[in-house]
Amino acid sequence: MMDFIFKDNYATAQFEYGQLTTSSDETYGFRPYQLMVSAIASCSGAVFKRILRKQRIEIEGLTITAAVHRNEHEANRIEQIDLTFKVKGNHLNKDKLAKSLAVASKNCSMVKSVEGSIKITETVEIVS
What we know:
Blueprint: E1 5-6, E2 11-14, E3 19-22, H1 32-54, E4 61-71, E5 77-88, H2 94-107, H3 109-114, E6 119-127
């Protein structure tokens, strides 16, 4: 169970790791859409890294860039999130990384949770 305590301009929730503050005004806390995008990107990235480890594909680093498309005419709802996975490493095969990313997408609980309501695109790039 999670308890959210509302104040004037923000809400807080206490978790084992620490306090989370949310607000529609980012001077008070994280905006809800930022948390949704963060959850999707973090989940997808974690599953992707786990799949790479199982396949014994070693990487030196992973950065995910998220571009968010919102519809201001429909309560600013998120319509699409484009995730670009920037993978750093030696002797990487882009096709193998792309196949691993496709498997990750099918196994990420956050991506599956928004399926049918938010379009998620995922691409992979090898960076030096």
